[in-house]
Specification:
Elements (H helix, E strand, L loop, with lengths): L6 H14 L5 H4 L1 E7 L8 E6 L17 E9 L2 H10 L9 E2 L3 H29 L17 E4 L5 H5 L4 E8 L21 H5 L10 E3 H5 L23 H27 L15 E7 L5 H8 L2 H14 L5
Parallel strand pairs: 2-4, 6-7
Antiparallel strand pairs: 1-2, 1-3, 5-8, 6-8
Amino acid sequence: MPYQLASSQLTALRSLHAQSGFCRRLSADMMVRFELTRPQTGTRSLLLEPSRILHPRFDPSVAGQGGHSTGKGMWVTCWSEAVETLARKGSYKRLHSSASMSDPALVCAKVHSQLARRVVQEAELLAERVKSWPNGSKGGPISTWGDVPLRVLPHESDIANLEREKERRIVAILDLSPSTPAADPESPAKEPAADLDGFSSGIPPAPPPPPIYRLSSFFQSAVLPPESLASFRPSPSDPTSSVEQQLLTATRAPLEGMLALLARRFEREDPSRATSGPPSEGSDVFVLVAPRDPRTEAERTRARVVVPLAVALWRLKLWTGEGWR
């Protein structure tokens, strides 16, 4: 099946990896790991399950992360159609003759759920890492609001102003607004026309815009096992709310908590900076930023901290197929 990766996003991630000194294999991030597990029912058959998608700190019981994995498995393209084809055709039988796999729809639902929860987990870990940094006055990597690797914008239209900053690049844009009712199918939205003027005139085309992740579109179709809610920090205050709302809230809470803590720190150091912090609560646009050309260790630290969450977001687009076009 011919497909190719969206080269602009891959190039951006490779550049960020190299400049920040982050040791990570992008090839593995483009794949989903499946491992043979032994069911607890006592049967001798082996079940091929998704593995190593969730962060082991939050879900150590997942197959391959402290569960009943045999350690034997395979890598599959991070794309729902590829995983569905694997489950339907049974090509995993080459791992073991007694291997089996759940219904393709169930397997894809499991991977979808774990990819969604990994975004929540990486948002929590990002917030924890930044909060653990010492102040700039004590040798830490953050001295001003300009050093914080996260921006909260009142409106998506404000992204253009952020793009014009020479010292920082936009790594990813998180839209945490809830989903809206589907548009009238009789009047579908018109796709923007491709800008071909640059090619015809010999002028290089404009650089691609930073990736925007409207998480509600991915979260609303996710399925959450009841036991997974305990891993969220904080746990959802209303377990009866929709899965989409629980995931959006769990993603937002640690990021807002991190900014609130930094605001208190900056105010203690210099009360005049209290008004120059993030905007008031209620915004749905969160932007990951990194130094455009990190040279010092502090700059590399600020660039490195956003990589895991950026990769987790990128994998969502790979899974839906959008990232392979």
